[in-house]
Amino acid sequence: MSEPETIRMEISSDGAFLPSVRQFVSDAALAAGFCPKSAGLAEAEANSLWNGLSGTAPGSLLRLDCSFAENNSLVLTLSDASSGKVHGMRTVRGACE
Fold this sequence. Notes:
Structural class: alpha+beta
Distance between the termini: 19 Å
Radius of gyration: 13 Å
Low-confidence stretches: none
Number of strands: 4
Strand content: 25-35%
Largest sheet: 4 strands, antiparallel
Shape: globular
Order of helices and strands: EHHEEE
Mean pLDDT: 87
């Protein structure tokens, strides 16, 4: 990947959407050149962010930023879409040994 890029999505906090979000994160990581093991880890980290939500009303709007950096890493940031309050952040490395 030649320059950093961010994919941003806004989605309901409803858990019914989580499987699709996890799959999207994994597919995006693979498309960015991550190995399958790291893409699976990115999927698990997205799941962890959703499971760590607290104090969020059911059906509230969340923002997930998937930022791919030049150093072959992915930073996932989950925040409230209206207030911008960050609920969590995870970093995943793309290269597999």
